[in-house]
């Protein structure tokens, strides 16, 4: 009975998506040890493992993963603890080259670091947005996020992670599979502090 329920839940999630899932892991670390307490002498790390097969037109050649830290209440990028104006910068993996790696599923196995106190990031008001982008030169530039100002980028898929579940359980310090969704096709100017994924349609 438990297996049947899990299958039904997965079907419900995939109705809005043409993609599968991505493995990621979030934790706080310092150079010597990892603890479960929110020690602000530590830093926040996000390990991006891999993605299932991406359902694209076959033109995606060099995917990367970019992670954005968002305040759910405002829909804006989370502000730094050291500034009332500056926001937490997004972080991204290195390029996964299909031709070089000769693999049909992207595998990054890369740890990204956010230089903010864990107590500032690990709250019920924070959500992480994961975006898979293609760095291939044939794609037109993306305006999904304001800091995409150079290079040629194509949007492939996106996912989100709430750091706490509805029952208060932490999604921290363990490997998770995130549902990938197809990005919006339209592009238009937006407030620089608000991701396009968080803005309403007109």
UniProtKB/TrEMBL annotation:
InterPro entries: Cilium-Associated_Jouberin (IPR052803). Residues 1-36 are annotated as: Disordered. GO terms for biological process: motile cilium assembly. Residues 1-19 have a biased composition (Basic residues). Residues 26-36 have a biased composition (Polar residues). It comes from the Eukaryota. Transmembrane segments: none annotated. One of its GO terms (cellular component) is ciliary basal body. This is Jouberin. It comes from Cacopsylla melanoneura. The lineage of its organism: Eukaryota, Metazoa, Ecdysozoa, Arthropoda, Hexapoda.
